[in-house]
Amino acid sequence: MPQPFGASCATPPPELLVGLRRHRGDEHKDKVRPASPDYRGGVPTVPAASPASLMRIEVVHFRSFRGIQNCVLTLRPRLTLLVGRNNSGKSRILRAIGLACGGANAERDDFTVGSEEEPTVDLVLAPADSAESFDDRVREVFGTHVQLVSVGGGERIAWRTSITRSAEGWGARATSRFLMFDAGADEWKPASGASEVARRHRAVLAADITGTGRDLASELSRPGSSIRRVLDDLEVPEAARGTLEADLQALGGRIVDESSALGAVRDRLSLLADAVNGIGIPHVSALPGRLEELVRLIDIALDTGGGAMPMRLHGAGARSLASLQVQSVLYDRRLGRDGSDFPIHPVTLIEEPEAHLHPQACFDLADLLLAVPGQVIVSTHSSHLVTVADLGALRLVRRSAAGCQVHDMTPSDTEATKPPALRLDVAEAEWEKIKRFVERPFGELLFAGALVLGDGASERAFLPHILRSALGSRAAEICVADPGGMTQCDPLIKYAEAAGIPCVVFLDCDDQGREDEKNIRGSAVRVWATGDPTKEGTLEEVLVEYDEDWVLARCSEHLPLVEGSALERLKKLKGTYGSPLGRAFVEAFPDQKTWPVGLQHLIEALTPSGADEGDDHA
Question: Are 500 and 494 in contact (CB under 8 A)?
């Protein structure tokens, strides 16, 4: 028999996903899911992020860097995802940004093989929150290097990092100098006698490169890692230090006294001290006597239901996620501790954060990345991550004659600002259709804790937003699949029965839906869109009956060229409206008790027996 949904945990422990309910970015451009704090069934459980940054990296321009001859990349204020095939240039882009920000040192490999040109990386900094002008604190640091780049406003700061070979030719060094904006040519250029970027200038950015080998278990013992930098100072009040260290010494002495093995070692070493003059009197310590020494022994354990287990015994996925979370702690606790009121801007560069994670966890990975303060630039191969991320955050990296080329995937009809030169000319509705026809839920099905079968593309795109809003982190285990017709449900239901996971079939209540229901075999729970098999209605009709004016307004907002009544528009837009309407629905109607009966029945069918409404079980 299928297990009650929520009875077991198929996702990483809740301790690792605590950042998923954190704030989701600085503006609507970077939203992954609805921004209301309670859309997961509870308020955020993580402290507020570090103070808002005063700036952001807007543009990066690479030349002659590791085979990249000429490439321009625009970055989102919060999260930018670099997607593309292997060896397209994603990792090289991450390294170039880290180098220009001061987070990496120059290497001989930064030069392009067969070229004598020096590699350069230009950074353009813009005010935070889409402001036209920088804060006065930025002006105090950069002075005349703050430049006006448009008539109506628009201040920017730019510098170029150049890489040169060392005198003997075996090494490399990087130097950075400020750039001047040439309004006539509409580009940044080096100026004669341009001043060098000093340490105080570069210190406004804190860059950190995180590779695929991140592992909190190993980082705990490696000097210089994020967790060790956090724990270098335990920040124990001086008033408590003496008492704690005395307790440590007392407990350590008790352990030695009770341990025959440690006592034997102590006694044997005492004989050596008696026999050899000057070797010293031995003292065996089971615990360090000072808090600073205790740092080397600190371990982190996770409890997945069977008792706390040390981090080193957990799988690579849990250790990797934990490492990403610690990166946020480093920024929150360490940046700005020099007493300055200038909030340093973190730039986190992550290579394949999905490494070691199962597909269902990747659906929530975008939220985890947005919980990291500052700007986050990520290279990824995860089809699950790019499915849930905002299209405007995606940058398609492709190989080209110039080494690589970056295409902006922001829908062409969603922003009135001047589009980047390499923006793909694809509208939002067209993107929804593309996503519909390329999705293959088989991979996520194998990691699912529950299965929902919906008849059509609209249900496939709409229902995940409903489930995430109502069920919180439990929804991460649910796979919503469109079998391509309800007559194809049987294999999926048979799989769910064999795997012991709940299965729910969500049916339109029309002639076709009732006919389909008769042919569905197995133990799957049937849920009707109307909530009552005797009441006619498809999902589109249920939404229109629920709030026709709201549906019409959303259709006009997202796809204004489609005409007709609210129901006619939804039918015309079948296969394209699901995801945008689902996001808007849970924002407009956060209280699930007011939802259409059919949606409430769906939530009830997926709620573990005895679980309180709004509970957030992982």
Answer: no
